Amino acid sequence: MAGTATEEFVGLGKPAIIMPGEGPQFTYAFAEAQSRLLGCSIIMVDKANEVSQAISQVINNPQQLQQIAANGKRRMGESGAAQRIALSLCKTLLKEQ
Q: Which residue, 7, 29, 31, 45, is the most exposed by fewest CB within 10 angstroms?
Protein backbone atom coordinates (compact mmCIF):
# COMPACT_ATOMS: atom_id res chain seq x y z
CA MET A 1 0.00 0.00 0.00
CA ALA A 2 2.58 2.54 -1.15
CA GLY A 3 2.35 4.45 -4.40
CA THR A 4 5.97 5.12 -5.31
CA ALA A 5 7.21 1.76 -4.03
CA THR A 6 4.63 0.02 -6.21
CA GLU A 7 5.85 1.91 -9.28
CA GLU A 8 9.45 0.92 -8.53
CA PHE A 9 8.43 -2.72 -8.10
CA VAL A 10 6.59 -2.67 -11.43
CA GLY A 11 9.65 -1.08 -13.03
CA LEU A 12 11.63 -4.15 -11.95
CA GLY A 13 9.21 -6.26 -13.98
CA LYS A 14 7.52 -7.82 -10.96
CA PRO A 15 3.82 -8.26 -10.27
CA ALA A 16 2.52 -5.92 -7.59
CA ILE A 17 -0.42 -7.02 -5.50
CA ILE A 18 -2.12 -3.98 -4.07
CA MET A 19 -4.97 -3.49 -1.66
CA PRO A 20 -6.71 -0.19 -0.89
CA GLY A 21 -6.37 0.90 2.70
CA GLU A 22 -8.47 2.90 5.09
CA GLY A 23 -5.94 5.70 5.51
CA PRO A 24 -5.85 8.97 3.63
CA GLN A 25 -3.10 8.06 1.16
CA PHE A 26 -3.72 4.69 -0.45
CA THR A 27 -7.47 4.89 -1.01
CA TYR A 28 -9.53 2.82 -3.41
CA ALA A 29 -9.54 5.70 -5.91
CA PHE A 30 -5.74 5.97 -5.75
CA ALA A 31 -5.29 2.20 -6.13
CA GLU A 32 -7.69 2.21 -9.10
CA ALA A 33 -5.81 5.07 -10.77
CA GLN A 34 -2.49 3.35 -10.16
CA SER A 35 -3.88 0.17 -11.72
CA ARG A 36 -4.73 2.10 -14.87
CA LEU A 37 -1.30 3.75 -14.91
CA LEU A 38 0.72 0.57 -14.38
CA GLY A 39 -1.47 -1.86 -16.32
CA CYS A 40 -1.17 -5.62 -16.16
CA SER A 41 1.57 -5.53 -13.53
CA ILE A 42 -0.99 -4.54 -10.90
CA ILE A 43 -3.20 -7.12 -9.25
CA MET A 44 -5.69 -5.44 -6.95
CA VAL A 45 -7.37 -7.40 -4.16
CA ASP A 46 -9.99 -6.20 -1.73
CA LYS A 47 -8.92 -8.07 1.41
CA ALA A 48 -5.69 -9.41 2.90
CA ASN A 49 -6.95 -12.99 2.77
CA GLU A 50 -7.05 -12.75 -1.05
CA VAL A 51 -3.32 -12.06 -1.40
CA SER A 52 -2.11 -15.68 -1.26
CA GLN A 53 -4.54 -16.74 -3.99
CA ALA A 54 -3.47 -13.80 -6.18
CA ILE A 55 0.21 -14.75 -5.72
CA SER A 56 -0.51 -18.37 -6.55
CA GLN A 57 -2.41 -17.45 -9.70
CA VAL A 58 0.29 -15.15 -11.04
CA ILE A 59 3.31 -17.36 -10.29
CA ASN A 60 1.61 -20.30 -11.96
CA ASN A 61 1.01 -18.36 -15.16
CA PRO A 62 4.31 -17.99 -17.09
CA GLN A 63 2.65 -16.02 -19.89
CA GLN A 64 1.29 -13.47 -17.42
CA LEU A 65 4.70 -13.17 -15.74
CA GLN A 66 6.29 -12.53 -19.13
CA GLN A 67 3.71 -9.84 -19.91
CA ILE A 68 4.34 -8.22 -16.52
CA ALA A 69 8.11 -8.17 -17.11
CA ALA A 70 7.65 -6.54 -20.53
CA ASN A 71 5.13 -4.09 -19.09
CA GLY A 72 7.62 -2.95 -16.44
CA LYS A 73 10.24 -2.10 -19.06
CA ARG A 74 7.71 -0.40 -21.29
CA ARG A 75 6.22 1.76 -18.54
CA MET A 76 9.30 2.56 -16.48
CA GLY A 77 12.12 2.39 -19.04
CA GLU A 78 15.52 0.75 -19.05
CA SER A 79 17.73 0.73 -15.97
CA GLY A 80 20.64 3.12 -15.56
CA ALA A 81 18.85 6.47 -15.37
CA ALA A 82 20.23 7.29 -11.91
CA GLN A 83 23.81 6.86 -13.12
CA ARG A 84 23.18 9.00 -16.22
CA ILE A 85 21.60 11.74 -14.07
CA ALA A 86 24.54 11.68 -11.64
CA LEU A 87 27.07 11.93 -14.48
CA SER A 88 25.16 14.80 -16.04
CA LEU A 89 25.03 16.66 -12.71
CA CYS A 90 28.74 16.14 -12.13
CA LYS A 91 29.53 17.37 -15.62
CA THR A 92 27.34 20.45 -15.19
CA LEU A 93 28.08 21.35 -11.58
CA LEU A 94 31.79 20.54 -11.54
CA LYS A 95 32.58 22.16 -14.85
CA GLU A 96 35.50 24.56 -14.56
CA GLN A 97 34.45 28.17 -15.00
A: 29
